[in-house]
Amino acid sequence: MEKKYLIAYGTAAGSTAEVAQAIGEEMQKQGITVDVKPVESIKTIEGYDAVVVGSAVRVFQLLGKTKRFLRKHKRALRKVPVAFFLVCMTMKEQTTESIERATGFAKPMFKVKEPVSLGLFGGCMDPEKLTGFFAKSMQSQPKEDCRDWEQIREWAQSIIPMLAKE
Fold first, then answer.
1. Contact criterion met (CB below 8 Å) for 69 and 149
2. 44 neighbors 6 (Cβ within 8 angstroms)
3. What stretches of the chain adopt beta strand conformation (E)?
4. How sure is the predictor about 29, in pLDDT bands with cuts at 50, 70 and 90?
5. pLDDT at position 141, please?
6. What values do phi and psi take at 123, rounded to 5?
7. What's the total number of domains in the chain?
8. Separation CA 164–CA 166 (nearest Å)
9. Is 81 helix (H, G, I), strand (E, B) or coil?
10. Containing domain of residue 103, as a range?
11. In this structure, are strands 50-58 and 82-88 parallel, antiparallel, or unpaired?
């Protein structure tokens, strides 16, 4: 029977959406049917064999819309295998300290369910794409993209058997 996975993401300026899309493409290469959708557009997760939830991090927290998605679908998420990922500038460098700190940002995710894996990826900061309070404070910063696409693709491939086992 063909597997069907959902990749749900919360993005503020689009970089997390691009990461979610790359994860979905890797899974599709392995013959998995994948829907990649923003968290705010998802009404139900019924019909999916596994769910991957990702979020951008702003001001050291998950996005509000990602937290709302997790609360709304908490019961359903507990019934299927899940993996989580974060996209944040804290992971600009892969150090013990940055991994520890970024893992702390995922606490609201872990309250829903222990994932098969947690992907921690460098973020992208483009002041031109930022909005709201965050935009004003970051306008003088240079554009910076710290996403490691090879790491992202490898993580996507690594979670496929883990999501299938649970």
1. no
2. no
3. 4-10, 33-38, 50-58, 61-62, 82-88, 118-122, 124-125, 144-145
4. very high
5. 62
6. -100, -170
7. 1
8. 6
9. coil
10. 4-165
11. parallel
Q: Which tokens is 104 given? A: 């702390």
Q: What is the mean pLDDT of residues 17-42?
A: 97
- What's 10's domain CATH number? 3.40.50.360
Residues in contact with 16: Cβ distance below 8 Å, sequence separation at least 6, in sequence order: 9, 10, 54, 55, 56, 87
The residues pairing with 120 across neighbouring beta strands, listed in sequence order, are 86
CA count, 13 A, side-chain hemisphere, 143: 6
Dist CA 27 CA 34 (whole Å): 7
At 33 the three-state DSSP class reads strand
Task: Give the separation between CA 22 and CA 38, rounded to whole angstroms.
Answer: 14
